[in-house]
Amino acid sequence: MPILGQNERPGRVVASIAVVAAAGALIALGLCAGFASASPLGRVSGSAHRITVGPHALAAVGALAPGDRAERTLELRYRGRFATVVLKTATKGSSLLRSDSADGIRLAIDRCAKRWTKRRGTKAYVCKGKRWSVVKSVSLAGKRALKLNHLSRRAGRTDHLRLSISLPLSAGNPLQGQTARVVYRLTGVAAR
């Protein structure tokens, strides 16, 4: 596994997010943020551009049945202006969740103009402002690179995001008790 910062072009900022997901018995989410530019060992020295991801850890989620979803929120804060932000995912492990693009785990990302708030009496989050779809529901099977739409990408701004991990209603018994590890990497390309 390459060290963050190696082989990166100048003007790129990388934030890694590791999410461990298991369907059926348990889905657990974890978030680790790291940053890199063209400097070695993931250090950003003198870089005018940076994306900060918070929180640094996402809460674990209980069992998901077909049709269920788990939501977590995170914030992207920008230092510098970015032309684009790309989400790269890779699913690790040997389970149907990793290989079944129709019935395996799915991810959707939405952005709110304000902080997401928890809906009273539920585990769902609601947006009390303007809302944008950043990534429509996509399968997390295999490797993907997704351009994130409708982000501010401007210095001093914060994007309030909601990640929704779901198991399709069509997911059958073969997915019960399956686990997969999904690694996310956010890459911001600095605007010129």
How does this structure look, described?
The chain is mostly beta strands. 2% of the residues lie in helices and 44% in strands. It has one helix spanning 96-99, and strands spanning 12-22, 50-54, 69-79, 82-92, 106-112, 117-118, 125-126, 131-139, 143-147, 158-166, 179-190. Strand 6 (117-118) and strand 7 form a beta hairpin.
Number of domains: 1
Strand order of the largest sheet: 2-3-10-5-8
Radius of gyration: 17 Å
Provide the low-confidence segments as ranges.
1-46
The number of strands is 11
Helical amount among residues, as a percent range? under 10%
Core attributes:
four-stranded antiparallel β-sheet; disordered N terminus; 2% helix; single chain; mainly beta
Write the layout of secondary structure elements.
Blueprint (H helix, E strand, L loop, with lengths): L11 E11 L27 E5 L14 E11 L2 E11 L3 H4 L6 E7 L4 E2 L6 E2 L4 E9 L3 E5 L10 E9 L12 E12 L2
Antiparallel strand pairs: 1-11, 2-3, 3-10, 4-9, 4-11, 5-8, 5-10, 6-7
Short synopsis of the structure:
This protein has one helix at 96-99; strands spanning 12-22, 50-54, 69-79, 82-92, 106-112, 117-118, 125-126, 131-139, 143-147, 158-166, 179-190. The chain is mainly beta and 192 residues long.
